[in-house]
Amino acid sequence: MALYADENFPLRVVEELRRLGHDVLTAFEDGRANQSITDSDLLARATEINRALLTLNRTDFKRLHRQMPDHAGIIIAPKTVIASDKRNALLRLLQPRAN
């Protein structure tokens, strides 16, 4: 699964995901950081390049999922999971779940 990390997603987690073999592109690497790009535009970009979006922003992206259901995926990482044991937390994060 190809992933797209928004600009607030922790870089240390991106690096760990890459170490585990995941294909992760960050908004910064894609030239979309520090530009006040809206969440909907960020989700549209991730969809355009067929990547699931990685974010900590639960409220806004749950709303966007309802408004824009045709996307490549949204993975919302709870901050408490990110702060816990990295490897196990990342494996849980990438497990498919129902809405």
Description:
- This protein is an alpha/beta fold.
- It has a domain of 58 residues.
- It has five helices and four strands; from the N terminus they run E-H-E-H-E-H-E-H-H.
- It has a four-stranded parallel β-sheet, with helices on both faces.
- The protein is globular.
Key features of this structure:
4 strands; alpha/beta; 99 residues; 5 helices
Largest sheet: 4 strands, parallel
**What structural class do the secondary elements suggest?**
alpha/beta
Shape: globular
| Topology order in helix (H) and strand (E) letters | EHEHEHEHH
**Share of residues in helices:** 40-55%
Strand order in the sheet with the most strands: 2-1-3-4
How many angstroms separate the termini? 18 Å
Radius of gyration: 13 Å
The low-confidence runs, each spanning 5 or more residues with pLDDT under 50, are none
Strand content range: 15-25%
Per DSSP, the total helix count is 5
Q: Tell me how many strands there are.
A: 4
Look at the structure and give the mean pLDDT.
85
